[in-house]
Write a structure and sequence with these properties.
The protein contains 4 helices and no strands. By secondary structure, it is mainly alpha-helical. The chain is globular and about 50 Å long.
Length: 128
């Protein structure tokens, strides 16, 4: 009887320990977003763009997934251009506090996500 009880307790302990380890792994996996190692090829990117234009008459970068966007940035010499105005809004006509606020917010997001200091950020602004 004692042997059976001991075996049952040992088996229960093993099951509990193994289940708790699995839960930890699941939590860690859900927090880490994993991208494929390699970017899409230029041909794959262009094919998707042409297909979308053919089907809808337009292409919008807002509708692509992160891997597609990252692949395009990699093939574009790691240059990402971010627009933040609305139609008919321009810095060149008058100073717009809304645009200035959007610009500052975007720069903060980039600095936080890229873990760089502002003076190390390669920021190019064009007069329109």
């Amino acid at each position: 009887m004692k042997k059976s009880l001991f075996r049952l307790m040992l088996l229960s302990l093993i099951v509990l320990v193994s289940c708790s380890k699995d839960d930890t792994n699941i939590e860690n996996q859900s927090e880490t977003i994993q991208f494929p190692k390699d970017p899409l090829t230029v041909e794959q990117i262009n094919a998707k763009i042409y297909e979308t234009i053919e089907n809808t008459g337009d292409f919008d970068w807002n509708t692509v997934d992160e891997h597609f966007l990252w692949s395009a940035v990699v093939h574009g010499q790691n240059v990402l251009t971010i627009g933040y105005g609305n139609p008919n809004q321009s810095f060149s006509e008058t100073e717009d506090p809304v645009l200035q606020s959007k610009k500052s917010a975007l720069i903060s997001i980039v600095l936080d996500n890229e873990a760089v200091e502002k003076e190390d950020l390669k920021l190019v602004e064009h007069d329109i």
